[in-house]
Amino acid sequence: MTGSHTGPAHWAAVDWGTTHLRLWLLDHNHNMIRQTETEQGMVQLQSTEYEATLLDLLSQDLQPKHPMDVICCGMVGSRQGWQEAPYAPCPTPPPSGAHATRVTTKDPRIEVYLLPGIKQISPPDVMRGEETQIAGFLSRNPQYDGVLCLPGTHSKWVHISAGEVISFQTFMTGELFALLCKESVLRHNVGATGWNDEMFTNAIDDAISRPAAIAAQLFTLRAQSLIATLPPEAARARLSGLLIGLELAAARPYWLGTQVAVLGDTEVAQAYCRALTAQGSPVKMTATERMTLDGLKSAYNTIQELTK
Amino acid sequence: MTGSHTGPAHWAAVDWGTTHLRLWLLDHNHNMIRQTETEQGMVQLQSTEYEATLLDLLSQDLQPKHPMDVICCGMVGSRQGWQEAPYAPCPTPPPSGAHATRVTTKDPRIEVYLLPGIKQISPPDVMRGEETQIAGFLSRNPQYDGVLCLPGTHSKWVHISAGEVISFQTFMTGELFALLCKESVLRHNVGATGWNDEMFTNAIDDAISRPAAIAAQLFTLRAQSLIATLPPEAARARLSGLLIGLELAAARPYWLGTQVAVLGDTEVAQAYCRALTAQGSPVKMTATERMTLDGLKSAYNTIQELTK
Lengths: 308, 308
Prior knowledge:
- Chains A, B: This is 2-dehydro-3-deoxygalactonokinase, putative.
- The structure is a homodimer of 308-residue chains.
- Chain A has 308 residues and is of the alpha/beta class.
- Chain A contains 9 helices and 14 strands.
- In chain A, helix 4 packs parallel to helix 6 and helix 5 runs antiparallel to helix 6.
- The longest helix of chain A is centred in the C-terminal third of the chain and has 19 residues.
- The two termini of chain A are 27 Å apart.
- Chains A and B meet through strand 12, helix 3, helix 5 and helix 6 of A and strand 12, helix 3, helix 5 and helix 6 of B.
């Protein structure tokens, strides 16, 4: 989209997470002028440093007379971020510009809005960032009624109906996988790369049929490496299958007999699709590259309408 | 036991684990002369450094004419340790001196024996160190028929009958608890100390009735801290309860309707006892302070008889 057809810089969309910042600079017609990614995520920044970080990335594009709108989603709006954008309570449409928190900046050349996350009181759950991906998905699939699965460090299962997030549930599956691979005694036995599809599918079945046994099954990976021969790539596929299978066992009410769209096109998203397909669940995978940006565009449009 | 009634140093018992070394110096009648604990565990040592480490700890007690027997158990006998002491296959009595591997040392003033662990082919499992605690328990309870529960980083459930280890199963519960407390996103919400008995017992029930939900229940701890008020000590008790409950759900064939002895008197062992008692299982707790030493004494006695 970069090139001679784009107009002057008009607004910026920012996905500002725990460890990364992604910024898209757009013209009046939402054509992308430039995209930037840095590691200036929440963990790197004090609350006083967010404005300077933005100004640094945008300085060459700012005009004294026309302040630039900057719409941000993600952990930037958490209590530990720039400023708290209070959660919208579920059920709710994915938060739009109408729910955004306006940040008072020192520099008058930017107008910054933080989008809130969503909270669910019972069972207690929260999301911050995923709601904007969901908004992006719904902007392209406005009639969607069914379940979204968002794999990640903290994967989410989300029930969508009539344009609203009805309920959701978060699983620490991705974080558990990373911790076990890198920090536990299994790090000696589980490969950092490699895969074995049969091991993965069998592990899914094992975990679904005996979910409670997970902590024992994990140690079995180590024992198998010590007294038998379990190649590291097979151990990796089995570990992934055990943890995703455990998640599927608990998330069954979300996917059983329902349309599921898996957001993402990563290796992990592919694994979720294979696992669901093996369980006989109809599933389609949707690339998320532009989904967050689409959600930020929707939010920007609402803000424009509200401030007309 | 230290004092004027002990004779000259005769042999040494060593519990040589992954991170620690505990050495007891004993006289001819197994009276303790001295006890030493250092952090010279397996992770600190190259295989060539074990002998020097021992000589360092024993130098003042060695006599040129009477080599001192040193009986070791634990990870020192693993493939990554001093020298591999191959696992005894299950079912087996806890390995005694008859199964020990004699290490060739450069210094003739010590005679070193490494006790093997136990392996189980199906389901694959291993132990190394716990078998000596079990031998110690059996030396004091020779007629014991039932189940032993050994809480720890990798907790073990062991079925004992007629003096033999019939079967066992290892759970990574303790390691999962430590990883989640210290390395995961829950570290912001889970206290390093403190306890809440009601939270613990409820969590045990929750995990036993819905074991698959564990990865979601874990994230709930975080959400509850963010949108409600979950004190860190309550979160700690609930996390412990969820993980121990998950283990109990899978270990049910070991404890249901059976006599269980929990080895240990740590806070964790107490938690296992409370959890089992709440599930209506008769349980007794046995201090393990001397159990490993008792097991090493048994092994030493066998070696004496064999080398007479």
